Structure formats: C-alpha cells, structure tokens
User: Fold this.
Amino acid sequence: MGYIKSAALEETGYVVLDRYDKEIDPKEWLDLDYVDWKSSGETRFAPITSAKGEIEVNGFWNHQPPRTDKDGIWIDSQMAIAPTLTARAKEPGANVGRCRVIELMPNDYADCLYNLHQDDNNRLNPDGTGWIVRGFFNLTNDETSYFVLRDNRTDPSVEYRIALPAGAQLIVDTQRLWHATTLNSENPRYCLITSWESGPELDAYIAKYNGKSRVPNVEVPQEVLDAGQAEQTRRLAARAAFYAAKGQAEKTAMSEA
Assistant:
C-alpha cells in the first residue's frame, strides 16, 4: 500500500516556507523546562509534547505500550509558557507527535558533518498512513549559521545549506536526509522541532506558506568545505574502529534527534 507522503518533498526531501515575520518573546523558549539529551552536538530539549504528557523526550516506542511518533500529549505547564510556539506547532492541523525546542551549543562545519544523522521517525508507523516528517522553526537569529542536508552522509556532491535567520521555517524528511546544523555563533541556537504526519492538512500548510523545494545554498569558502570533509572522514574512521573493537555496529540513525 505504501505511506502517504507530500509531493512537495519528493524532489529534494525538504521545503523552505515563507519566513515568519512576527516577534516572539524569547521567554517562550528560555523559560521552558529542559532535559539534558544528547543529539547531534551539545544539546538539551524542552518538550511541549511527549508520550504521556511528562517532561521527558524519549521515543514513543520506548514507552508502554510502544507506538509511533504520532498523537503526542501536550504538556500544560510548557504550553502556558510558550503559547505562540504551541500555536505554530498546531497550525497545520496535522497530527503532532513529538514537539520540543532544541538548544544547540555553537559548533563548526566539521562538527556538523560528523554529527550528520537520519531520524527514526516512522518506527512502528503503520503502512497506509501518513509518513512522519519534521518541521523546524528557527527562533534565534543565527544569520551566519546554516542547516546542512545531504542525501548521503559522506558524499558532499549533494549538500543543501539552508540559512537560519530568526523565523526561518523548513519541513524536512529527516528519515530520508542526513542533517545537522553549523552554528557559527557565541550563543546557543533555539529551534522548535515538530513531528507532523504527512497528508492533506500538511500539504495545504506547505502551499499556504509557498514551500520551495530548492533555495540558494549558503556560500561557504571552499577551504572550509574541504577541511570539514577531511575531518569528517577522519572522525568517522576513528568512530568505526571504536565500535569494531567492541564488536558492535556503528549507530547511524538518531531516533531522538
């Protein structure tokens, strides 16, 4: 039967929506309750939904009964702090799974390439239902930073670098694309990440905000690209050797990212 997917994401695996142009009080993300949780880089997460409405960020399949990344339970205390962010997550009308704010500490392009990962959004997702994708709503004004997307983790020939000013909005098939962020800043990056179910509601939302499947890449000096690629190769080789010495397969899908 196959999954229901958005045609807008078919070409590249992502769309960039119109930039959100309204002011939001930073207290909506700074005052949330955060959980220490390692993802791609040095990160913490503030859940607005969770599997059971508690302030934790574990995958829904790690609870009893286990289930896919849909039907997140809204956390009243977090919603009260972040009403605008809650409204942004609910606006498409699509089913919401995990919804949380990520706090990412500064890193460079080499760190970003090493941290590239795919998500495991559709574990336990029944065939014939909507494919889970993720919305990214950038909250801080990270104008010299960029989101990196690749079809292949170690192949730079197809690399999308998406600018991250405040209000930048992307929807990404993060189970298809390898992704991470280069944060050229002295301050943390904050971004609302929402798991949405593909379907007519999400398609209408993408159309409403003029989703584009291709935007100009952020320009990065070639020497930075080359050095980052070389460092990724070195670090991944060291990581693979580490796991091999322990008799384990390397983990590449980061289901909590």
About this structure: The domain at 7-245 is CATH 2.60.120.330 (Jelly Rolls). The two ends are 28 Å apart (CA to CA). The mean pLDDT is 94.
